[in-house]
Design brief:
alpha/beta, MacB-like_ATP-bd, Rossmann fold, 31% helix, ABC transporter, binds adenosine-5'-triphosphate, ATP binding, 311 residues, 2 domains, 13 strands, P-loop_NTPase, seven-stranded mixed β-sheet
């Protein structure tokens, strides 16, 4: 799918999301993490996996979260998916407070409010069911099997031709696109995808990202893709980087009309400023000027200047 479609798809996603929410004023903060802390204790040793992570995702957004191995991505996703409970902080998704969920509400949350796509295709699909039956299964779990809808969803993600095939008769990319259809079978408000393209080559991965973008635009589902693959930034409008259990920076891509009248995509890098005014400089900025220990700050009329401190 041409990346220049991104602006149009995002506009459509926002419209659908607003329709679902009952107005544009209710779009803010579909997912909210505030000062999220998760400490693991093993054999007397404490590991701080999340140390005050802040994140706000609006309704209808398609967002990627990137970070190196060990940065806390899985820990965050486990909390947001209701599998784990944070040590401290705020975690809310679609109005559900994930720190105080009862067992009953947790089940409802996991069955109806959120959908998942995992890296391992085996975790997404049952091997002895066809693609269509796989999509129908979560529907029947809530008593709403609907063959026509299952076919529509398979069509939306571009794998209608696989409806009658079992996973072992499909390619890795087709399986993951089917997994996207399964994940939205019960019309969830939020979809979490954990390394959905981790086992695929680049071209096949692009098809899966295309399927996620279409679902985002057509159904207005808020989508969070978690990955260590930085090329995902080319596939979405907003990419948030996590470092050491904190949100460190983000890249936003916006469509602009250039001087030649053609739409162009512009990428801009942002740092996340927390409530106490802390921010982290991107590693490449620090390296480029060999900044260390102390930097000199000057407040200008409309910006803040950061210089090496030893000048
Ligand atoms: N159950 C656990 N017990 C102890 N430490 C843990 C546990 N889960 C995660 N950690 C630690 O927390 C930190 C963050 O881990 P996490 O799995 O969230 O990172 P990640 O970004 O998802 O990495 P990867 O991309 O390799 O999956 C790591 O230092 C990890 O060793």
């Amino acid at each position: 799918m041409a990346v220049t479609d991104l602006g149009e798809l995002q506009r459509r996603a926002a419209e659908r999301a607003a329709a679902r929410a009952g107005g544009t004023d209710r779009l803010r903060g579909h997912i909210v993490c505030d000062g999220l802390v998760r400490i693991f204790k093993t054999e007397g040793v404490e590991v701080v996996a999340l140390q005050g992570l802040d994140l706000v995702v609006d309704r209808g957004e398609l967002l990627a979260i990137v970070g190196a191995s060990g940065s806390g991505k899985s820990t965050m996703l486990n909390i947001l998916s209701g599998l784990d409970v944070p040590t401290a902080g705020i975690a809310q998704v679609a109005g559900f407070d994930l720190l105080t969920l009862t067992a009953k509400r947790r089940l409802r949350y996991r069955r109806k409010v959120v959908g998942f796509v995992w890296q391992q295709t085996g975790r997404n699909l049952l091997p002895y069911l066809t693609a269509r039956e796989n999509v129908e299964l979560p529907m029947s779990l809530v008593g709403r099997a609907n063959r026509k809808r299952a076919m529509e969803l398979l069509e939306m993600v571009g794998v209608a031709h696989c409806a009658g095939r079992r996973p072992d008769q499909m390619s890795g990319g087709e399986q993951q696109r089917t997994a996207v259809a399964v994940a939205v079978a019960n019309d969830p408000e939020v979809l979490f995808a954990d390394e959905p393209t981790g086992e695929l080559d680049e071209a096949t991965a692009a098809d899966v990202f295309g399927a996620l973008r279409t679902i985002n635009a057509e159904l207005g589902v808020t989508i969070v893709i978690v990955t260590h693959d930085h090329t995902v930034a080319d596939q979405v409008r907003r990419t948030v980087a996590i470092r050491d259990g904190r949100t460190a920076s983000e890249v936003r891509r916006t469509a602009r009309t250039g001087a030649d009248g053609l739409e162009e995509i512009v990428s801009e890098e942002y740092a996340v400023l927390d409530r106490t005014g802390r921010m982290q400089l991107p590693a490449n900025f620090v390296d480029a000027l060999t900044l260390k220990d102390r930097v000199k700050l000057t407040l200008e009329q409309d910006h803040v200047q950061v210089r090496p401190g030893d000048e």
